[in-house]
Every structure is written in structure tokens, then in C-alpha cells.
Amino acid sequence: MTNDNYNNRVVIFDTTLRDGEQSPGATMTHEEKLEIAELLDDMGVDIIEAGFPIASEGDFKAVSEIALRSKNATICGLARANYKDIDRCWDAVKNSNAPRIHTFIGTSPLHRAIPNLNKDQMAELIHDTVTHARNLCDNVQWSPMDATRTEHDYLMRVVEIAIKAGASTINIPDTVGYTAPMESAELIRVLIENVPGADQVVFATHCHNDLGMATANALAAVEGGARQIECTINGLGERAGNTALEEVVMALKVRADIMPYHTVIDTTKLMNLSRRVATVSGFPVQFNKAIVGKNAFAHESGIHQDGMLKNSETFEIMRPEDIGLSETNLVLGKHSGRAALRAKLEDLGYQLADNQLKDVFFRFKELADRKKEIYDEDLIALMRAGEDAENDHIILMSLEVKCGTHGPQSAEMNLVIDGKEVSTIAKGDGPVDATFNAVKALYPHSARLQLYQVHAVTEGTDAQATVTVRMDDNGNISTGQSSDTDTVVASAKAYLNALNRLHIRRGRLGEDKKEINYKDTAV
Ligand code: KIV
Ligand code: ZN
Hints:
- The chain is of the alpha/beta class.
- The strands form 3 sheets. The chain has an 8-stranded parallel β-barrel with strand order 1-2-3-4-5-6-7-8, surrounded by 7 helices. The protein has a 3-stranded antiparallel beta sheet with strand order 9-10-11.
- The protein folds into 3 domains: 288 residues, Aldolase class I (TIM Barrel), CATH 3.20.20.70; 58 residues; 119 residues, 2-Layer Sandwich (Double Stranded RNA Binding Domain), CATH 3.30.160.270.
- The chain is built from 17 helices and 14 strands.
- It binds 3-methyl-2-oxobutanoic acid and zinc ion (ZN).
- The site of 3-methyl-2-oxobutanoic acid has 10 residues, from β5 and β6.
- The site of 3-methyl-2-oxobutanoic acid (KIV) has 10 residues, from β5 and β6.
């Protein structure tokens, strides 16, 4: 490694599009992946892990296109420890200005048992696969999956083999979120001090959040000598997720006094990215989430508000502007004009052409007729509703629901499916059940409802409800979302949104369906 690697610059490796997107239900469309990659590149992320090319046609295409489009970031793809995976990965990333192959294998006793390899056989495989990757690409990252549960002597042995075979980044994953800060720092320290050649490579940390320690563990690993943090926006990822990018980046910025390391992330872009990832993944950000949660900068109690008015530092360790939150949440209403709407949307990261603004303005006025005050969150929901609409194959024309204390409830629904109008009346156990039964009657399908979730976009009884619906069509997972001041209408639209997305995906020959998961062994 160059001397720079032990200086204080921490490289940010974002895996929202690979480890984040791989989590069930977080599937993104091709266009959404391209958009997120562009935003990450723009924000200054050093390395984007854009996908797992062998997993599906969709992953391959997304990684290839991101590789072609990205301006600054290194574009990385994931590959298991076999030549076929590595070749496919190289095909996907090779057109990037700065390509990287990331290959891995599970090295802990539990993971070694899956392909049924003994220690020597696995060591040989690591040598061969890293060598193969290095023959294709100058920039190879190697990961011993489940490193934190791998015997230290064996871990040192295989890390040395990977370095000798040409890996320039060694990632130490805490795959199951098992480690704790002191141990995380110590493990990296032990490797750097004891493995021959360790001073020639960059050590990376990749932490999962099963015990809620991912951010602390990643920062501790940096203390131990790691100079690459692997993370995702909003901590997106399977189970309890990954290290949250916004948390490690802001922790390093705010506490530079005790953690003298820095990244080159433009933190004013964090909020916008967080919102976009929440929207496209269908995984909302919890209100009290550090940095990007809705309440992260809200000061409700009297004492807090008084202190804030006198001096914002009384209760704030960062300024909202540092993460791209505008200082004032300017509220729009039915008298607001196009210029105010455009300014507000630009503030939220949406650049609109005149014709797009015209359409959004129309829908904004419709909403403002039903809702007195329009907040940022309302506008984000409005923008999301417009995104898919033009490609919709099923459209909701009307919905009348009869509710009462003595059910069953009924829903009278009109849909347009591929240009043809159809209608029905269906009963159900509650208004949402009746509505979903009406959809099923008009558009029979085998997709199963996996998740139905409602949350209020803002406060007040006139608040819009955002409904998230996740459907599973034989392993093909689709998330739909919609917002409306009427919860049942939002539910119907979210359900249709999920079905429309499934339809688009099927039309693309299942391109987004992962044929394999990175956890499947293929050695
Ligand atoms: O958690 C993990 O171990 C991974 C590897 C593929 C790096 O995601
Ligand atoms: Zn992981």
C-alpha cells in the first residue's frame, strides 16, 4: 500500500445497490438503481458496489450501465469464489473508468461446512480465485465472509494468501452482526500487525447491525487501522441492515476532535439520498433514526425549544443544513404559485422541466384543495405518485367504500386495465380488505400480500397516509407505495402500484428477479 493508506482519509464504499438491494422487499427497478448510483457518485462516494452480476440479468445490466455512466466513483461488482462469477463480474464492470472485482468466500467453521471444504482446500480455492480476478482486473477486493467468527490463525493465513494473490483491499465482514467495538478494532489491529504484506493493502470493515452496533463497530475498525467503511444509505440491508453511511460520515465529521479521520462526502446531499432510497426501496426511515430521521432535528419540548431559540447549539451537535435540510420548512398551501412550488421542489432535490412542473402543479393544487398545509413530506409523496403513473397498466378510476359497525364492508371499484374499463363490487372484512378483494376480482393474480403498512405523512387529521404494500409473486418481490388523504384510496393505489411494478418486471423477462443469492455457495 502507499503511505496514503495509513493517513487519515477514510474511503466510503457504498453497498446500497448490492447488500441493501439484496434484502427481501428492497428490490429497485433498473432506472431507480441508475438514479441512486448517480446520486451516490455525485455525493462523493469513493466506491459503489453496484450489484451482484451473476445473480440475474437485471443485476448484470444495472452494474454494466452504472459502470459506463459513473463519473468519479470506482464501480465494483460482487462475485463468489468461482471463475464463472468472477468472469461475469468483470464483464459487467470492465467499462468503468475505475473497475473493481469483489470476490468472497465464507471462512468461518460454519461457512466452510457448506461447500464441504477443509481448510487447505479452501485456502487453495482462495489463492486460485483471487489470482484469476487479479489477472482480469488491477483492483481486486477480497472478503472472508463471517470473518468475525473465523479462527484468528486461519483468518491470518487466508488473508495472507489473498494479499499474495494480488488483492489490494481486504474486507473483514461482520456478516451476522456479532462483534463489538473493542473486538472490531482489535481484529483489524491484529491482522495489520501480524499478516505479512498487510501494510501493502487497505483494510475494510463491513458490519451488519444485528446487535445495533454496526456504526460503532465500523468506527472502531477505523481506530484499529481500517481505511474503508462499507455501508448503505439509511442502513438498508437484510435483517437489521448494514452500517448506515450517513451515521459514520457524520460521526467522523462531528467528532473529528477524537476521531481524526475524514471522508470526501458532500454531507449536504445526505438527506436527499436518504429520501430517495426510502422511496424507491419502500423501506421508510424510522422517525427517530440518527441523522436522517424525521425527528432528528425536531425539538418538541418547551425547555428544548427555549434553548434552541437562544442558541441552537444548546441541543444540536450538527446543523440541519449540514445534511441538506433547509433551515425553514416552508409550508405551501392552495394559494402558493408555480414559482414557490418549483423553488421548494428544487430544495428537495427535484429538477423539473416546464412540462413536468405543469403536471406536478396540477396535482399539487388538487391536494391543496383537500389539505390546508402542504409540507415537504407531502411533496415527496406527490412526486413519487407521479413517477410510475405514466407506465401503469392498471389504473384506478373510482372507488366507493361502504363502512359500518356491522360489517361486512363493501368496495365498488372501477379500473382501467390496458385501456379497458372494468368494474365490480366486493365485500371484505374491513374497507381495505374489501378494496383488495375488488382488485383481485378485476385483476386475478397469484401474487401474495407480504406486507401492508400505513403511516401518516404529517400530523393532523387531514394528513396524507402513505401506504406501502409488498407482494410476492413466486419469489419475485414488488413494493408499491401511494399517498392520499384517504387511507383506503392510498391502499388501493399502493396495491395497484405493486401489481403494476410486477407487470413491468415480468415484461422484462424477470430481469429483476435474482436467480441466486450471494449466500448460495458455488465453488
Ligand atoms: O455480509 C457479508 O459478509 C457480505 C459479504 C459478501 C462481503 O455482504
Ligand atoms: Zn453484508
